[in-house]
Amino acid sequence: MTCRTELLRKIQQLNFTMIELGLYLNNQPDCCEAQALFDKTRDQYQAARAEYEDCYGPLTYSGVDTCEDGWSWINGPWPWEGED
């Protein structure tokens, strides 16, 4: 597995964990342990996503800097297309 694929998988895993913790916190909003784990996971997700986007380009529209790069996100392979 390439570094790019590993990083994308990590992002997916962290996103899944945030969704599950968010669902749990909807029912248990006073659980400090779950809130702390959600916050830690969100920080890891944001860092992994920033690293991926710095190396390989944006994952979503929110990662596009149209002022600096224009609509350049369409130039590279999409995350699900794999590597060249």
Description:
It is a single chain. The chain has 84 residues and is an all-alpha fold. Helix 1 (3-27) packs antiparallel against helix 2. The two termini are 14 Å apart. Helices cover 64% and strands 0% of the residues. The longest helix is centred in the first third of the chain and has 25 residues, at 3-27.
What is the percent of helical residues?
Answer: 55-70%
Query: Assembly state here?
Result: single chain
Low-confidence stretches: none
Global Rg = 15 Å
Summarize the structure.
By secondary structure, the chain is mostly helical. It has helices at 3-27, 32-56, 66-69.
Secondary-structure map with pairings?
Blueprint: H1 3-27, H2 32-56, H3 66-69
Characteristic key phrases:
single chain, 84 residues
